[in-house]
Write a structure and sequence with these properties.
This protein is α+β, with helices and mostly antiparallel strands and 385 residues long. The chain is built from 11 helices and 8 strands. Helices cover 45% and strands 13% of the residues. It has a 4-stranded mixed β-sheet with strand order 1-4-5-8. Strands 2-3-7-6 form a 4-stranded antiparallel β-sheet, with no helix packed on it.
Length: 385
């Protein structure tokens, strides 16, 4: 892997930096999970991004993108986080469903769903998990019954991120009478369709980042099925690969956080535990190692490779790195970390909020325990029992 940026890549970086410097809001937006107003402010930001053709840079131009490669996407992400731009509220769409739709969707589906996804006109929630099927998605019980040119959906989904304010959701549904990995299909449904009920799940900070969804005789056109009928498990695994191994957690996110952590240490090293200096160094090295690994993954994909079970090692690494980074910051701050942002002596960055979010990392996108099973079975060839 050549770590030298080409002149074209350097020019692309300069273009991204100039645009972001001119357009990133001067004041942070209210969090998109806090209120409807905060969510809609982020939707407007997505529309501004699309005006500059930055909605999802790797997609072909005809679907709302720029047609650049994954290395340029990583460059875009580095500049995006450097600029302190708003969080991507439609990440379920652009980073999870979008790449999967690009691989398995028909041209008509891509034309219908990708452009409004890239512009923020249509926001997406994921509807994978159920009360008895979280990391073990083969246990999904929600059903899809074919009725002419429609499917009738019934079931109960839970821990659906962004579902409180989003417009659409994508989820796994099975044909009645099928079990485990067989008979499942990936189907899209509008969250305002008759028969859909969305109940918010509040987090410890009051944000509504998750919801449970009840579906009762919800009718959607067969056009909303991605791939062939019964191909849902295969497609789901491809989506999980994008989520765990590449798109969901950009390395720039952690590189910027590690740099802030180093600044926090420099500002507090006279009063903080001296042993924490080694943890700051470790956090910085982990972020750089993760970035290099993702660059390697991107280079392999550009060369024609596919994401495989090694995505599970990535998922474990970034989720544990995130917690370690945030815990180190809280250790440096000591009791000051407990102060809310409104307090006069609060830290300039809300490390506690990021710490609370990081605790979910080992659970979502497939629990780390399940990822270790995948590594043992599919990478190391160990027996299941």
């Amino acid at each position: 892997m050549d770590l030298t940026y080409t002149p074209e890549q350097q020019a692309f970086r300069a273009e991204v930096r100039a645009w972001l410097d001119a357009h990133v809001p001067a004041e942070p937006l209210e969090h998109y999970d806090a209120t409807r107003e905060g969510f809609e402010a982020h939707r407007k930001w997505e529309a501004i991004l699309k005006q500059g053709d930055w909605g999802m840079v790797t997609w072909p131009k005809e679907y709302g993108g720029r047609g650049v490669d994954l290395i340029q996407w990583l460059i875009f992400e580095e500049e995006y986080y450097r600029a302190g731009a708003p969080g991507r509220v439609n990440q379920n769409g652009i980073f999870l469903l979008g790449p999967t739709l690009m691989e398995f969707g028909t041209h008509e589906q891509k034309v219908r769903f990708l452009p409004p996804m890239a512009s923020g006109e249509e926001m997406w929630a994921q509807a994978w998990s159920e009360p008895q099927a979280g990391s073990d998605l083969a246990g999904v019980r929600a059903t899809a019954v074919r009725d002419g040119d429609e499917y009738v959906l019934n079931g109960h989904k839970i821990w659906s991120s962004r579902a409180v304010f989003a417009d659409w959701a994508f989820g796994l549904f099975r044909a009645p009478g099928t079990e485990r990995h067989h008979g499942m299909s990936l189907i899209f449904f509008p969250l305002d369709a008759p028969g859909v009920t969305v109940n918010a799940i509040k987090k410890i900070n009051g944000h509504v980042g998750f919801a449970e969804i009840f579906l009762e005789d919800v009718r959607v056109p067969a056009f909303n099925r991605l791939g062939d009928e019964g191909q849902g498990w295969h497609i789901c695994m491809a989506t999980a690969g994008f989520e765990r191994g590449l798109m969901l957690r950009s390395p720039a996110r952690y590189q910027v956080a590690a740099a802030k952590l180093a600044e926090l240490w420099e500002a507090n090293k006279e009063t903080a535990d001296p042993a924490l200096e080694a943890e700051v160094v470790r956090a910085f090295m982990n972020a750089e190692a993760y970035a290099l690994n993702i660059y390697q993954t991107a280079s392999r994909l550009i060369a024609g490779a596919k994401i495989g079970p090694e995505a599970s090692t990535n998922k474990i690494f970034w989720s544990e790195m995130d917690i370690h980074l945030m815990e180190t910051a809280l250790g440096i701050l000591g009791p000051q970390a407990e102060l809310t942002q409104e307090a006069p002596d609060a830290a300039s960055y809300d490390w506690m909020d990021d710490y609370i979010f990081s605790l979910a990392g080992p659970i979502y996108a497939g629990s780390n325990e399940i990822q270790r099973n995948i590594i043992a079975e599919r990478m190391l060839g160990l027996p299941r029992k």
